[in-house]
Amino acid sequence: MQRSLLDIISTNGYTTLIEGEPGQGKTTISLAACAYKDSCKYISYAEHEESLKRKLSKVEKGKDVKIEVLSAITGEPSKVFSEIISGLNEGKLVIVDSLDAFMYSLKDESEMRSFLQVLYGSSKKKKGTLLFISENVNPASKHVRFICDALVSLGNVEVMGSSIKRTKVIKDRDYAIKAPFYYYTISDRLKIFSPSPTFIKQKFGRLKTFNRPSEGTIDAEIALGYNILYDVDLSVSDLVLKIFRETLAADYLRLGYSVDYWLGPQESEEEVLADIKQLVETKIDRLKTIYVDPQEFEYNSEDYLRHIVTTYGKDNSVDIIHLLLQEDFAVKQPVEYERFVKNATKENLKLKRITILFGYSNQEAFKIRAKYSNVLRKIMIKDGFLFWRSLRPLGNVYLADFKLEEGYVSFEEML
Q: Quick one: 5-194 is in which CATH superfamily?
């Protein structure tokens, strides 16, 4: 089972090192570990007690966390060492902020080496945890990398044109690192995200919560013209796309809409119905699965559209369409396909049907559909996480946090 980031950095008997540039959230994540353990001793070379307690209240609102703050700005190394040992003896999480300042207080390298050996042995023998924070401004701090049990690096990574905070677990002594990356945001309060087990286990509970992005609400979809096109990055597997489409269908059903689910080339009608039924746990008589091959109508746009409208056309309903179904039509008869798209768009506006299309940007069907879609969104997988962004109109990047075993999906804005 994947260990949480807070599990890793606060493991009893561990010496942990958190590295990162200023502003990455090292102090905030360390305080989250303090809240996770309910108490800690915080040895600070810079921040005052009031500042740390303010940050702690943002990390864990409403929780009574015991934090003992000791200022080491003018302290001798021997005094700091004594406080560390006493904290470890009491089984506490001891945070030293920062390792760089701590190293500067030592006289020479030999003192530093012997000091680290004593510290390392002390944390092993005690039930507590020693956590160092470092900005890597003191070259001597790098020696701790070799003796620490857990090493975590904080930084930024680009996702769909936006800079997102990410942490990488480089070392976790007693456990295999199954997935090294965790994403987090500290804009309002700290939120740390682990890779979703939904995309591996495929276990669904009843969908209770589906918190949409502000740009992805149903009101926004209606206001922008009912036609929504998803650019599916090639990093998104068929399985992940299927789960995303099924969950979206379940949410519309949950909200009282009728849904026409157009099966993808690799999708089984039996599996799709079983999955969605599990998600809504009610009758799914308002759900239809559709597989209509345009070739059966000899790629004639009028006949194809007439069949769709007369067979499936309903007011105030939702179409969820996989564009691979229409790719042959777009490739073999592009003019006729564009005529179909133009007329289908008008028909959907008249019927007030929300149409959600999923395709790949290199597809001919996608390129034609993009001309008639006021809303363009993108989904991609990076490091095992699903990201979502509105490209037209332009919005922020969201992390799609899928916990379907718990019946929970939330889109978290990554600021």
A: P-loop containing nucleotide triphosphate hydrolases (3.40.50.300)
